[in-house]
Amino acid sequence: TSPNASPLADQIVALAQKQLGIPYKWGEESPSKGFDCSGLVYYVLKTLGVNISRTQATMYKQGTYVPKSELKPGDIVFFQNTYKAGISHVGIYVGNGKFIHAPQSGQVVSYADLNSNYYTSHYYGAVRFTN
Is 13 left (phi over 0), alpha (psi -120 to 50) or beta? Predict the structure, then answer.
């Protein structure tokens, strides 16, 4: 169990980690077919009983806002202006400055560094669906 994390947060991280290596597939949300970024988050949260919408912009409005300085494992991180204007990418924070996401076509679900120049410059915000 990670420090300061709720049981649900630990389950979110564990289930996200089980998807590592699954291919990116636009519009998909299942381990058998693949995931796009919001599909991965949708699948993990929905599987754990969190009622959540399918798109990044609406997901962001459904959770409780969390300042970047207070991120905990299981929080959902959002990025803007990655391939289109506005919120356009999402991942699951796992701690130590890392998050799990479905990056883009031709890649697989993997870890990324929240503090890299790219993700720092595109960071939009984070929300929490756990207590």
Answer: alpha
- As a whole number of Å, the CA-based R_g of the chain is 13
Number of helices (H), then strands (E), belonging to the chain: the values are: 4, 8
**Tens of pLDDT, residue by residue, the chain (131 residues):** 455 568 999 999 999 999 999 999 999 999 999 999 999 999 999 999 999 999 999 999 999 999 999 999 999 999 999 989 999 999 999 999 999 999 999 999 999 999 999 999 999 999 999 86
Task: Report residue 79 as tokens.
Answer: 């990025």
Per DSSP, which regions of the chain are E strands?
29-30, 34-35, 64-66, 76-80, 87-95, 98-101, 110-113, 123-128
What pTM value is reported for the model?
0.94
The secondary element (H helix, E strand) that includes residue 17 is helix 7-18
Distance between CA atoms of 87 and 47, rounded to whole angstroms? 23
